[in-house]
Amino acid sequence: MAGTAKLAALVLLIFSLGMAMPLVHSNLEDPKEVDKWFQKLQYAKAKVSRLHFYFHDTTTGKNPSAVRVAQAPITGKSPTLFGQVNIFDDPLTEGPEPTSRLVGRAQGLYGSAGQQELGLLVAMNLVFTAGRLNASSITILGRNAALQTHREMPIIGGTGVFRLARGFAIAKTHYLNFTSAIVEYNVVAIHY
């Protein structure tokens, strides 16, 4: 029982930190400039951005990009790893090769939330580090049915270029083994 309470507290703490990240990141601009931007918002026209990149998740080796931070007492007996929680800081690249140009990082957590089939609860920030999107982010919170061919997850916000974003991300596994995954992402973000 004490282990379950500790696991729940850890998941709550990690989730809270993940949700606070966009709020902290969005305060990089002068608050007066943000207020001016917000005042003009009523006249702004929504923009649509379509993004394509690859997510590289590695759980082993010298420098893993995802690590397990918690698991339930039943996780080891579950075919879906129910109750396991991982934190990640994964590179985002233009192409599927790990040596492809870096365009950002995916930072957040995923937890195995399905008992009958593998279903991950994903809370992540896609933090862009290149070109016009540098220092902008998109926040995704939703279910990733990792073994399905295509998975749709909602965009719940963003910062910088993607301030007030909404939309969706479609994930498709490009490569998968027991220690790493390369996932293709197609993102449609509506923002101002």
UniProtKB/TrEMBL annotation:
Which regions form coiled coils? Answer: none
Localization recorded for this chain is: Secreted, Extracellular space, Apoplast
Q: Record's InterPro entries?
A: Dirigent
Q: Which GO terms describe its cellular component?
A: apoplast
Q: Signal peptide: which range, if any?
A: 1-20
Cross-referenced Pfam families: Dirigent
Keywords from UniProt, A to Z, are: Apoplast, Secreted, Signal
Sequence intervals crossing the membrane: none
Superkingdom of this protein's organism: Eukaryota
Its main subcellular localisation, reduced to a broad class, is secreted
Q: Does the keyword Secreted apply?
A: yes
Keyword ATP-binding on entry: no
What function does this protein fulfil? Dirigent proteins impart stereoselectivity on the phenoxy radical-coupling reaction, yielding optically active lignans from two molecules of coniferyl alcohol in the biosynthesis of lignans, flavonolignans, and alkaloids and thus plays a central role in plant secondary metabolism.
Q: Which family does it belong to?
A: Belongs to the plant dirigent protein family.
Stored PANTHER family: NUCLEOPORIN-RELATED (PTHR21495)
Q: How does it assemble?
A: Homodimer.
Name of the featured protein = Dirigent protein
Species of provenance = Carya illinoinensis
What's the source species' lineage?
Eukaryota, Viridiplantae, Streptophyta, Embryophyta, Tracheophyta
